[in-house]
Design brief:
With about 325 residues, the protein is an alpha+beta fold. It has one domain: Oxidoreductase, molybdopterin-binding domain (Sulfite Oxidase, Chain A, domain 2, Alpha-Beta Complex). The protein is about 15% helix and about 20% strand. The protein contains eight helices and twelve strands. Strands 3, 4, 7, 8, 9, 11 and 12 form a seven-stranded mixed sheet that branches. It has a five-stranded mixed sheet with strand order 2-1-10-5-6. The protein is globular. The structure holds ligand MTE. The site of ligand MTE has 16 residues, from loops.
């Protein structure tokens, strides 16, 4: 997915937050500690046991994977977030320049309730859930991550989309002063993603606000990013500022950039290779045999293992054509 490498310089965060918003934000973050208790085997793999805050208990969660989670340090230092550079280490180095508080989200299109909403009005702390999802990157690596977030369908329903809303498009913040990578056309900014409405209303997608029980770091898409576990990682758009309910299939960044390589659906599918590499297996980052070992490979699962919940969405479709 690499296109161009920018030069380096730094920016400073210079905005203060009104006290009311600050307090509300603290409530969202406080809401991350839904279930305090013992750390489960799933979450034990963090190499950073001294992270301040609550320990999560995923034992009652329907969404868990009985494998060690990818160490926190790796989850937060090996990322794609091209707005901060195309190197995997760039987001952790440069995303601190992103101002995430206050944050508002514009809602447009075919819905009864549209307008600009403060993040605090969209995310209800009591609706946040803990779910462990495997995220499979199109570049044939995967991570297992304990997320915290609100199910996307709950948030979208609140805007009362009309019957004309066939798709939903998401837009990432575009602010060159805060996002050094956007000063070069690595992609056509802003970053865009989309889902068909029935995909978006499925129970699996999360609007994530946290990971490992803590506020989501900027390099992972603060303050709000999508997680769509049965699709390649690039569908999981970060730092969302706009949600549009639309009638036609919306533009998405990677399809615009290389339509032969990246489709709108982008469902994880081991049977359909990327034109330049196989999708049959994946490298497990931070897996048993270490970061780069060839032994930490696993076969890729159809729909990334979430077929029970999502295969019916594609009944009758030719997944080779609608890739
Ligand atoms: N969102 C934005 N705005 N910009 C990006 O470059 N990269 C995508 C996705 N979301 C990207 C993005 C890709 S390619 C992947 S693999 C995931 O973010 C990586 O997210 P992670 O932080 O969970 O590893």
């Amino acid at each position: 997915m690499l296109i161009r490498r920018p030069k380096s310089w730094e920016l400073k965060e210079n905005q203060t937050t009104p006290e009311k918003l600050y307090m509300n934000r603290r409530q969202i973050i406080a809401g991350l500690g839904l279930a305090s208790g013992a750390v489960t085997s799933c979450a034990q793999a963090t190499t950073k046991p001294d992270i301040p805050g609550r320990k999560l208990d995923f034992s009652s969660s329907k969404y868990k994977i009985d494998e060690p989670s990818t160490p926190y340090d790796l989850v937060t230092s090996y990322n794609n977030f091209y707005e901060f550079g195309t190197d995997k280490s760039d987001p952790a180095k440069y995303a601190h320049t992103l101002i995430t508080d206050p944050w508002s989200i514009e809602v447009e299109g075919h819905a009864a309730k549209t307008g600009t909403f403060a993040l605090e009005d969209i995310i209800r702390p009591e609706e946040q859930e803990e779910r462990i999802y495997r995220l499979r990157c199109v570049e044939a690596w995967s991570m297992v991550i304990p997320w915290v977030g609100v199910p996307l369908h709950k948030v979208l329903a609140r805007f009362e989309p009309t019957s004309k809303a066939k798709y939903v498009q998401f837009v990432t913040k575009f602010e060159p002063k805060q996002m050094r990578g956007t000063r070069w056309p690595a992609l056509d900014w802003p970053y865009l993603e989309g889902l068909r409405m029935d995909e978006a209303m499925n129970e699996l997608p999360l609007l994530a606000t946290g990971l490992y029980g803590h506020e989501i770091p900027k390099q992972n898409g603060a303050p709000l990013r999508l997680v769509v576990p049965w699709k390649y990682g690039f569908k999981s758009i970060k730092s969302i500022v706009k949600i549009r309910f639309v009638e036609e299939e919306p533009k998405t960044s990677w399809k615009k950039s290389a339509p032969r390589e990246y489709g709108f659906y982008s469902n994880v599918n081991p049977l359909i290779d990327h034109p330049r590499w196989s999708q049959a297996s994946e490298r497990v980052l931070g897996g048993a045999a270490g970061f780069n070992s060839v032994f930490s490979r696993r076969p890729t699962d159809m729909f990334n293992g979430y077929g029970d919940a999502v295969a019916s969405l594609y009944a009758g479709m030719d997944l080779k054509r609608d890739y």
